[in-house]
């Protein structure tokens, strides 16, 4: 099975957001990755519910919503209503992670948990069985276009071993610095989903770039 590609709309041209979403609709992308930043959990502010709703109105792809925010429980119903099919929260931002994951599932969405680069995959020991997706950050979250952190490969291999040993279908998603060069290595290590932002949207032909990533 080929890798799934989730272009990050954070790298799109916001002045032509509808056009960018419609371009992704015609591409071979599997999801549209929507990064929500609150300026507190990460040192940047992106956009919120109104923009997410606008993206959903024009999207023919599933919305993979990544909440890089403190106390995400407050906003889970609103983002679900705005069109999120996958809701990913950060392990570092949740005081009661199991309750948060169950809340996401009760809302009818797939539940994901993201790990910052410094957080070991062993932190997932007691929650992994409940997850549909784990998002491993391969850059420090907050800004697009950052350099890929090489230690990510080892984290992927360790997580893939955990998933396989338990017989789970949990997907492993990699977010940050993904490009044509490291994508095959990420897949070889065990990644299922690649989030690509700047690499897709700054390329001369984003549709062709997405197709190439999927064909690796």
From TrEMBL:
Catalytic site: 35 (proton acceptor), 175 (proton donor)
The record's free-text note on cofactor binding: Binds 1 divalent metal cation per subunit.
Source organism superkingdom: Bacteria
Pathway involvement of the protein, from the record: Carbohydrate degradation
One biological process term in Gene Ontology: pentose catabolic process
Listed Pfam families: Ribul_P_3_epim
Swiss-Prot/TrEMBL catalytic activity: D-ribulose 5-phosphate = D-xylulose 5-phosphate
GO cellular component, one term: cytoplasm
Keyword Ubl conjugation: no
Entry similarity comment: Belongs to the ribulose-phosphate 3-epimerase family.
NCBIfam families: PRK05581.1-4, rpe
Protein name: Ribulose-phosphate 3-epimerase
Protein's organism: Cecembia lonarensis (strain CCUG 58316 / KCTC 22772 / LW9)
Gene: rpe
């Amino acid at each position: 099975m080929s890798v799934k590609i989730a272009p990050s709309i954070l790298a799109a041209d916001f002045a032509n957001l509808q056009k960018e979403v419609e371009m992704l609709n015609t591409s071979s992308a599997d999801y549209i990755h929507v990064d929500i930043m609150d300026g507190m959990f990460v040192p940047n502010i992106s956009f919120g519910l109104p923009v997410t709703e606008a993206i959903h109105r024009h999207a023919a792809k599933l919305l993979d919503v990544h909440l890089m925010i403190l106390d995400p429980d407050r906003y889970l119903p609103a983002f679900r209503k705005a069109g999120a099919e996958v809701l990913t929260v950060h392990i570092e931002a949740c005081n009661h992670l199991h309750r948060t994951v169950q809340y996401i599932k009760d809302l009818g969405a797939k539940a994901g948990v993201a790990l910052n680069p410094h957080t070991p995959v062993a932190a997932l020991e007691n929650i992994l069985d409940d997850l549909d997706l784990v998002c491993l950050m391969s850059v420090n979250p907050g800004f697009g276009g950052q350099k890929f952190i090489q230690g990510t490969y080892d984290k992927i291999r360790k997580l893939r071993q955990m998933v396989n040993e338990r017989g789970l279908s949990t997907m492993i998603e990699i977010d940050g610095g993904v490009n044509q060069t490291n994508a095959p290595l990420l897949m070889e290590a065990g990644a299922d989903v690649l989030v690509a932002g700047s690499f897709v949207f700054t390329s001369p032909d984003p549709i062709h770039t997405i197709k190439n990533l999927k064909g690796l």
